Amino acid sequence: MVAFFLFAFVFIVIGVMLYFVAIYNGLIRLSRNIDKAWANIDVLLKQRYDEIPKLIKVCEGYMQYEKATLEKITAARTTCMQARTVDQSSKAEGELGKALKTLFAVAENYPDLKANQNFMQLQQRISYLESQIADRREFYNDSVNSYNIRIHQIPDMFVAQMLKMADKELFKAAEEEKRDVDIKFNLPK
Amino acid sequence: MFEQLFEDKFYTLAFLVIGVIGFFVGFMRLRRRRMVENIPTSTVRGLALGLVELIGKARAISKTGAPFTSPLTGTPCTYYHFLIERLVRSGRSSHWEKIAEGDSADCPFWLIDDTGKIPVLPKGAEIDIKLKFQHRTRGRSAPPKLSEFMTKYNLMRYRNYILSFKEWHIKNEQKIYVLGTAKKSHDFLNQHKKKLVKRLEELKSDPLKMSKLDLNKDGRIDQQEWDLAIAKVEQELLEESLAGGQQAESADVIVAKGDVEKLFMISDSSQKELISQLGFEAGLGIIGGGVLALYTFWSLMRYICLHF
Description:
The complex is a heterodimer of chains A (189) and B (308). Chain A has helices at residues 2-60, 67-82, 86-107, 111-115, 117-150, 156-162, 175-178. Chain A has 189 residues and is mainly α. Chain A has a single domain (2-178), classed as de novo design (two linked rop proteins). The longest helix of chain A is centred in the first third of the chain and has 59 residues, at 2-60. The termini of chain A are far apart. Chain B is α+β, with helices and mostly antiparallel strands. In chain B, 42% of the residues lie in helices and 28% in strands. Chain B has seven helices and twelve strands. Chain B has helices spanning 2-8, 10-38, 144-152, 188-204, 207-213, 223-244, 271-307; strands at residues 50-60, 68-69, 76-90, 93-103, 109-113, 116-120, 126-128, 131-138, 162-171, 175-184, 253-256, 265-267. In chain B, the strands form two sheets. In chain B, strands 1, 5, 6, 7, 10, 11 and 12 form a seven-stranded mixed beta sheet that branches. In chain B, strands 2, 3, 4, 8 and 9 form a five-stranded antiparallel beta sheet that branches.
């Protein structure tokens, strides 16, 4: 009977260990997935930052009276590239998004610019990148949400506490991004 | 001692092994469940390379948009798997023996969601789809469609056996769940298009073949007849690819079995159904397997104590 109890004990210990290993690996995977999701957003942001100078160059030729709008985009782009945390990034991205929206709205008043092939392509490319970025941000938030729920649920909570795992920050759309774009045309009177 | 133990307690030993295996398999199912639960669903547009979870509709990759047909039921589909078995009797016992099996795992299909589409290559995937067709009959009295299939694939020699026909398929436009690796791959769509164009050019240069396409015999090939011809050529290309076991090439990014991450699932169940099914399997394996292993081990120990 000693052999049986020994076997039962070893079997249960193996079971418990495997269970905790599964929880541990699951939490680590979730945590790494968040880092990866964030890095994947960065890849697209980088592509968008690369497109902006080209867009400004095309616009400059047609929109000599909208210098302020173009300068705002350049400044917002620089702030975005310098952002380090999720919070800084969401604020800076909000500014850039707003500035781009204003530019595209103002461009409606410049028929020659609107008809320019390069401008149309860049506008389409940037809009598509914006949609991709929005999808990836949603994915990032889903990943963070799964992780934040997991680390507060039993039994994952015990492993998370042992590993000192804390809540991760969600990407929140900046207030500027939610507001309507204020459009002012600076055409000569 | 072991010989006698094996003779007297063969089934107990077998159940012990089953219990231990079930216990570990249960943990593997638990791991799978957690993956399905924890990986958020991506959109095709926002998809990044690596392990991804996608939910969308399956659609055939073909120039005409027409899906190919499944071999047993002739259902237009994007994926199929069939299995034919014969009943073999030996003495009082009988068992089913596989005589033919096949699938279209080498043929990719589109996965389409609200944001775009991406090819999915099912090769190497764990495909969890519901059985769509099952028919048992003596070979010689099989329905015409099945007899046709048996003749085509040289299975008529089994006509005196009781045969079981099974088919699983994913219909065109059916909602599916995919958990696999998004990766860059060779340009299969272009190659597929090139092969198709070449085949159609050959067809056009053969007057005899062209005359066969004129179904209404009005002396000319109209749009409908030409579309049918294209669909037929695509079906031939598919069958050749299946027969040759060629691996399909892919577009810029494809969802397939990963080189590092081996997990690749395609299912026609919803994510919720999958999670509960995997949870049930995990629970059954861990608790059922564990209890079975402990009970059989206890039974063996008791036997050993009493007899040796």
